[in-house]
Automatic annotation (TrEMBL):
Residues 28-182 form the Glycosyl transferase family domain. This is sucrose-phosphate synthase. Gene3D superfamilies: Glycogen Phosphorylase B. It is an enzyme of class 2 (transferase).
């Protein structure tokens, strides 16, 4: 991967629009942001993340949740599986009264992805200094082993997800350590390292 387009300073003009799209959802946009950038696909386990966030009051008091779930104009025009996930997300926002705490903008461009990570990091994700909470299954394990930039959890264990997110957001030393490790070790995933 080529990380030459990663900028550590305030980013491109597109960020203003994207930032506005996200911030308009949030009552307190100054809280740290938990970011999920994924398709609203049933396999992505988004509903478990929503339940973990919704049922963990200490986490909700510390942070906002931003869901970048692809692009949509009309839920009725989405595939059945994606529409079902999005409708479930909306129902969970209502069930846990997460209005003002969860952002889910309708549109973003592929070129916005670095800005999305930068917006969440303020302070792929490791290249922007963003600690991760990821599944303990599959590729994230190898990434974590190399970068040590976050925490791994059982993706089906709602409490483990909430605990890991809360730990990262509440323990500033851990956040900074994961952030530094990501920055320091991201070169291991650059194209020259694979050649």
């Amino acid at each position: 991967m080529d990380f030459s387009n990663v900028v550590q300073e305030v980013l491109l003009k597109g960020m203003v629009t994207l930032q506005h799209q996200v911030m308009r959802f949030l009552t307190n946009p100054h809280k740290p942001m938990i970011l999920a950038l994924l398709r609203p696909d049933p396999k992505k386990n988004l509903t478990t993340l929503m339940k973990a966030f919704g049922e963990c009051r200490p986490l909700r008091e510390l942070a906002n949740l931003t869901l970048i779930m692809g692009n949509r104009d009309n839920i009725d025009e989405m595939s059945t599986g994606n529409a079902s996930v999005l409708i479930t997300v909306l129902k969970l926002v209502d069930k846990y009264d997460l209005y003002g705490q969860v952002a889910f903008p309708k549109h973003h461009r592929q070129s916005d992805v670095p800005e999305i990570y930068h917006l969440a990091a303020k302070t792929k994700a490791a290249a922007h200094g963003l600690p991760m909470v990821a599944t303990k299954n599959g590729n994230p394990v190898d990434i974590h082993r190399a970068l040590y930039n976050g925490l791994l959890v059982d993706p089906h264990d709602q409490q483990a997800i909430a605990d890991a997110l809360h730990k990262l957001v509440s323990e500033k030393k851990l956040w900074e350590e994961c952030r530094r490790n990501g920055w320091k070790n991201i070169h291991l995933f650059s194209w020259p390292e694979h050649c």
